[in-house]
């Protein structure tokens, strides 16, 4: 199972305008609630608790807020591109304009970790970040993410090949 099993154009929010990190998390919690059937305050509280542990900003303008919820029926993966970058307490001090949310059932921690690894791997390529920042439609953004995940999987498969293969 990959994040693309839980991701499509309907998972994309283009040109969100939250203004700050707190408003962004609130907006993401509301979107995740609409998709999961779980209360937005519960999701927001879990996201805020995770951020208190340490910022989920990855650097280069990207953040990956994530959390686990007990009794969540299915994972929720969202992508938001912000109109204006917001401070996310990133180690590189770069404000964030690309945000992925991973909300996962607590019973499947391996799934959460695997999804985060896929997202991080897909976003290593600066060209993917440029393409996401320039995407015109939600369909375009979704295809960029799906292609980046697939490309990263292909790259890992090649990197895992025995020497001389």
Automatic annotation (TrEMBL):
GO terms for molecular function: protein kinase activator activity. This is Transcriptional regulator. The lineage of its organism: Bacteria, Pseudomonadati, Pseudomonadota, Alphaproteobacteria, Rhodospirillales. PROSITE patterns: PTS_EIIA_TYPE_2. Residues 5-148 form the PTS EIIA type-2 domain. InterPro entries: PTrfase/Anion_transptr, PTS_EIIA_type-2_dom, PTS_SugarTrans_NitroReg. It comes from Azospirillum palustre. It holds the Pfam family PTS_EIIA_2.
């Amino acid at each position: 199972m990959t994040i693309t099993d839980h991701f499509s154009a309907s998972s994309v929010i283009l040109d969100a305008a939250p203004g700050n990190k707190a408003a962004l998390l609130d907006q993401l919690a509301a979107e995740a609630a609409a998709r999961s059937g779980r209360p937005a305050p519960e999701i927001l509280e879990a996201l805020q608790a995770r951020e208190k542990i340490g910022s989920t900003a990855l650097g280069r303008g990207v953040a990956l807020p994530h959390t686990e919820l007990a009794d969540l029926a299915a994972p929720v993966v969202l992508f938001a591109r912000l109109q204006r970058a917001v401070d996310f307490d990133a180690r590189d001090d770069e404000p964030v304009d690309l945000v992925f949310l991973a909300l996962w059932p607590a019973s499947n921690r391996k799934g959460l970790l695997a999804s985060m690894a896929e997202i991080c791997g897909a976003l290593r390529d600066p060209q993917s970040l440029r393409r996401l920042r320039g995407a015109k439609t939600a369909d375009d953004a979704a295809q960029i993410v799906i292609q980046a995940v697939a490309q990263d999987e292909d790259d890992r498969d090649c990197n895992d090949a025995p020497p001389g293969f």
